[in-house]
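Dear U.,

For the methods section draft, I wanted the exact inputs and outputs in one place so we can describe them consistently. I've listed the two proteins in the order they'll appear in the manuscript figures. Please don't edit the token lines directly; just add comments below if something needs changing.

First protein:
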Amino acid sequence: METNITFPQFSGNHSITNCSRDNILKTVVFPLLYSVLLLVGIVLNGVAVWVFFRIPSRSHFIIYLKNIVVADVIMTFTFPFKVLSDSNLASTGLRIYVCRVSSVLFYLTMYISILFFGLISIDRCRKTLKPFRGTNAARLARRKLLSGAIWTFLLILCLPNMILTSKTPPSKYFKCSDLKTEAGLLWHEVVNHVCQVIFWGNLVTVIVCYTLITKELYRSYSRTKSHNDGGTICRAPSGRTARTPQQATRKMNANVFLVLAVFFVCFVPFHFARVPYTLSQTRNVLFDCKLKLFFFQLKESTLFLSSLNSVLDPLIYFFLCKSFRTTLFKTLHMPPGSCSWLTGRGSDPDTGSTPLRDSSVGT
């Protein structure tokens, strides 16, 4: 949620700045990419909503995933406005809507996803270190309250950005900061700092959790390997080598790292690119036009990676949540064991694949 989220709009070759960002990358390439993302996102998130409405919230993991689904759906429906705005097809009124509402919702859902990725990482770490610890109605109720508190907090944080973006555009060429009141600019700076804390705090959380998960997986693998030294190879009736329980376990263990992969692909590049981009906007004497344009294009490219979160999250639902797979297969009239070669076997119906200790039984 930055002051310069939406940039000056242009018509033809007329520009109010000598350092124009209105090039083919901004007006053609990114609108096309976001259009594809919109179509794919509608299909994948539509399926995710359809499936999750049929799954009861019987674990922390399911609760967190349902919140991410809602955030992804909202983010997906902001893409058409960005496409129209960036391609210079939007009217002045629609561009004002992008500044006041659409871009705010986009960043709202991004940081909601970041927070729930942090919570999922904590949950996966807990399931790894204490695999036999169950849950109860009280714990589930607390997670639902926590989810509601996260949405409420970020909505309250972002609402003034909508309300205080109320000035009349000075001309047909404007950026979002031109619409903000003095109080709006000040509040926007506060929101930026809070969002930075949210990201960096969750980045540390994710790194710590997956470091602990990796250590526990290594210990588990070492124990399993020592127990199976000199063992026999399992063969299927057809004579082919069958996958052993340990192989299935390793497949499930690898799937756990999908959360880490999606987090780093989608959110880390943008927040690292955001630092020099913000400096280029606030320290004019340090950056010439070419450098400013480079950082702008870098920011837009990494912002697109953040948008990919809305279509990569379904991978997490499919690979880490057996309840999701089971319900999806039933809906598609597919046999229950479909895709087991990808997902592993024996994962818990509600919590997804989790690392195992000395046995091959899912936790």
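Second protein (the one for the lower panel):
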Amino acid sequence: MKKLLLTLALGTCSHLLLAQQVISVYSVTIPNSKPSDVKETTITESNGGIRVSNVIQPTLTVFKPAKDKANGTAVIICPGGGYARLAIDHEGLDVAKRLNEMGITAFVLKYRLPNDQSQPDKSIAPLLDAQQSIRLVRQRATEFGVNPGRIGIMGFSAGGHLASTAGTHFAKPVGQDPTNTSVRPDFLVLLYPVISFADSLMHGGSRTNLIGKTPAPDQIKLYSNDQQVTAQTPPTFLVHAADDKTVKVQNSLRFYEACLHHGVPVEMHLYPKGGHGFGMNNKTTNDKWVERLQNWFDANGWLAK
């Protein structure tokens, strides 16, 4: 695959990364899509943050670790943004570079955001892209130098909702695949995730963007992923701040309790402060959750070569 310049309209921003491999999630026609005037947009906010919206062509940007560090584990990263945009920098590109330091091959997923103009069924577009990404990495594991049995998915905020959906809805994939390649991730990493779409816990923007303003009760339940956990749900690592006013900490607590109930190995780190959207750097503490994550990876054998 030809190496491409990852521009993302970053200009001279410090996040500019040269010669990363960018691959299309789909090699043929993109499923659940229709012609529209929607055009992808990228903006750099006043604080330097990079936000991508109106994604039409989903892609994976591949970050490979140094050959002497590579251990065969892969992580697909889903940035957050309320299913309205993607915080592609501090919840994507920066995280990928940190995972590379652990010897992990990282894939930043630029997934489609729900859009009635460009998708016949906006509720399944992000999950289609996430499941196809797992399928693609697993099918091309040799090419990427990864173990097809060590492919996890990681998500922040609404990206955490997408990752947790991938980790609980794999038994009945939303897309067609004649190869029957498993789309079950081998582990989940969920950072201040949207989990529940129940009225009392939902992040309103995420729910409305994905399943509409007046969703049916069965849709609310289907996408309340604490209610979709089974004994087959992958081992899970959770991080949240108790003072998160955007996505209530009870989202992570519910998922943790569901994992306990079903015997799913789970580890959770809660911080008293930090708010929402802190990425890898919770400025209220000297503790680094990414170091706790590295310990978890190590304890589960995912850093072994």
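Candidate sentences for the figure legend, describing the second protein: Helices lie at 89-101, 125-139, 141-144, 158-166, 204-211, 217-222, 250-261, 289-299. The CA atoms of residues 102 and 259 lie 26 Å apart.

Thanks,
Y.
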